[in-house]
Amino acid sequence: MKFFTVAIVLAFVAAAAAQELIKLTDEQKQKVHALGAECIKETGAAEEAVRAAGKGDYSQVDGKVKCFAKCLQGKLGYVEDGKLNEAAIQASLGKIVGDEQIKAIQAKCNGVKGADDCDTAFELHKCYLAENANIQI
């Protein structure tokens, strides 16, 4: 179960193709596992649907999966008080794709708005994934 939850969370943090390139410390893996488990519990999102969405398959996405995205983004510090924390996103995702590319992606995606906060979080996830399959928020 622990590995399964880590895999689900990492799907939202970094696309499956990039996971081997991202070397997380044991401490980071534990943190991501704990945050993902908290968000699954808090939102009631189906683990299978979260995993599929992390791979770009949105056929099972419902409001709970969208709220999982919001929850995880908040716990990772990407969203604070309902606003994107661009510096936190740059610091985290810039390591994956490079600072200039993440700034270009932010310029395109950070204005995305959904019907509500959960929908907005999920639309941001989709935009980042569409712009570079190696990153997701």
Automatic annotation (TrEMBL):
GO terms for cellular component: extracellular space. It holds the Pfam family PBP_GOBP. It is found in: Secreted. CDD domains: PBP_GOBP. Residues 1-18 form the signal peptide. InterPro entries: PBP/GOBP (IPR006170), PBP_GOBP_sf (IPR036728). Keywords: Secreted, Signal. It comes from the Eukaryota. One of its GO terms (biological process) is sensory perception of smell. GO terms for molecular function: odorant binding. The keyword Secreted applies. Belongs to the PBP/GOBP family. This is (Mediterranean fruit fly) hypothetical protein.
